[in-house]
């Protein structure tokens, strides 16, 4: 079974502790993503699993086999771990054509030439490089080289693939296409994929489960894309997964107050006291019917299909995104300096810890990208 089990991993470089006390289990046949900001330790974790680096403490098992045991000083060499690996540097062999680069793992397995040819041509088509089989890497763009590396890793059909930002050099269309392709291949071949990225959209699109890491290399939440997006464990996750509004709120006597106005809310916090209301810009509505909190439109930007508003609610600024055509149809298009009322849907309540307060001077925090 192509599972990965990490137990109590610590990795430091000099005094810099990148990962500490990290444990994680990745199931057979799942596409699991490590998602976190740049520099949080995702690639280091992947290199430890691949066997290119040694942890200070902890064990790593692939299936039933312990491949790294730092207490016993045991390390299985990378080549014996049964992994397909694509790293950011997408090293392709410069002296070999695209065909030879991709077919190399099969040549090592000494497969017959006609089978190699069929499988290479299939892989070439999967990564959209048909017609370029005889080119050298120097005659390819960065994104094309990245696809060669991906095809070369996939062709050997390893039970477990480690992919470190394998799509980051591709343009938006191709990236979208390739992420579906990776997901399809993973399902069709029943392989396990551990995918590393700082891009939330890719993480949500391809994963069965994700682990969200913070700047300190700690895992904050593990869950399905829906869990992470709809039920964030804390304000860090909520902020990391997209543009977020945070509104200081007081819950008292069964009522929620924001900027001294009473909010009639579909959900309330668990206990009385100060809270932060987290809400996505697309989950806020503006109206002229007097429903919700009173506000003033400070900025109205037409972005084509969406309207992007900045609304002041008694000194608290919130970002609101509305579907332009729905707004036109419903007579709810607003201009700058117009009064409005604001309702909120899908509320998230967070305890206002020091980190949230310090990040929250503008009440609005953008998702990392
Ligand atoms: N060989 C090394 N020596 C010293 N420090 C290192 C080494 N490799 C990584 N680091 C440090 O470990 C931290 C984590 O690096 P890592 O490459 O895992 O980040 P990442 O989360 O993959 O980021 P990105 O998304 O930018 O690739 C960084 O602060 C980096 O500087």
Automatic annotation (TrEMBL):
Q: Which UniProt keywords apply?
A: ATP-binding, Cell membrane, Membrane, Nucleotide-binding, Translocase, Transport
The cross-references to SUPFAM superfamilies, in alphabetical order and at most eight, read: MOP-like (SSF50331), P-loop containing nucleoside triphosphate hydrolases (SSF52540)
Q: Which PROSITE patterns match?
A: ABC_TRANSPORTER_1, ABC_TRANSPORTER_2
Q: Where is the ABC transporter domain?
A: 4-241
Which Gene3D superfamilies does this entry report, sorted A to Z? P-loop containing nucleotide triphosphate hydrolases
PANTHER family, per the entry:
MALTODEXTRIN IMPORT ATP-BINDING PROTEIN MSMX, TREHALOSE IMPORT ATP-BINDING PROTEIN SUGC
GO MF terms on file?
A: ATP binding
| KW Magnesium (keyword) present | no
Q: Name one Pfam family in it.
A: ABC_tran
- InterPro entries assigned: AAA+_ATPase (IPR003593), ABC_transporter-like_ATP-bd (IPR003439), ABC_transporter-like_CS (IPR017871), ABC_transpr_MalK/UgpC-like (IPR047641), Mo/tungstate-bd_C_term_dom (IPR008995), P-loop_NTPase (IPR027417)
Instruction: Give the protein family.
Output: Belongs to the ABC transporter superfamily.
Name of the molecule in the record = ABC transporter ATP-binding protein
């Amino acid at each position: 079974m192509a599972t990965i089990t990490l137990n109590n991993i610590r990795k430091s470089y000099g005094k810099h502790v990148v990962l500490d006390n990290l444990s994680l289990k990745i199931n057979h046949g799942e596409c699991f993503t490590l998602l976190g900001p740049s520099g949080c330790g995702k690639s280091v974790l992947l290199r430890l699993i691949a066997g290119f680096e040694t942890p200070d403490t902890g064990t790593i098992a692939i299936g039933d086999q312990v491949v790294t045991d730092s207490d016993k000083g045991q390390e299985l060499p990378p080549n014996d771990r049964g992994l397909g690996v694509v790293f950011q540097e997408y090293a392709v062999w410069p002296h070999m054509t695209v065909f030879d680069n991709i077919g190399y793992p099969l040549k090592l397995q000494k497969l017959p030439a006609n089978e190699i040819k069929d499988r290479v041509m299939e892989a070439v088509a999967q990564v959209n490089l048909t017609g370029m089989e005889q080119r050298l890497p120097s005659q390819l763009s960065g994104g094309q080289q990245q696809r060669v590396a991906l095809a070369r890793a996939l062709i050997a059909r390893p039970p477990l693939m480690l992919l470190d930002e394998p799509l980051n050099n591709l343009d938006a269309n191709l990236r979208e296409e390739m992420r579906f392709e990776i997901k399809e291949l993973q399902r069709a071949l029943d392989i396990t994929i551990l995918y590393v990225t700082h891009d939330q959209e890719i993480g949500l699109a391809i994963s069965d489960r994700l682990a969200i890491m913070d700047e300190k290399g700690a895992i904050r939440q593990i869950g399905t894309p829906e869990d992470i997006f709809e039920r964030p464990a804390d304000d860090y996750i909520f902020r990391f997964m997209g543009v977020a509004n945070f509104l200081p709120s007081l819950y008292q006597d069964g009522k929620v107050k924001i900027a001294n106005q009473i909010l009639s809310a579909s959900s309330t916090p668990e206990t009385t006291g100060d809270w932060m209301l987290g809400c996505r810009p697309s989950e806020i509505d503006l109206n002229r019917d007097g429903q919700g909190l009173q506000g003033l439109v400070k900025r109205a930007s037409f972005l084509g299909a969406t309207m992007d508003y900045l609304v002041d609610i008694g000194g608290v600024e919130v970002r609101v995104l509305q579907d332009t055509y729905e707004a036109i149809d419903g007579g709810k298009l607003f201009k700058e300096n117009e009064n409005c009322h604001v309702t909120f849907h899908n509320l998230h309540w967070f305890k206002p810890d020091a980190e949230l307060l310090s990040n929250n001077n503008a009440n609005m925090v953008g998702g990392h990208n």
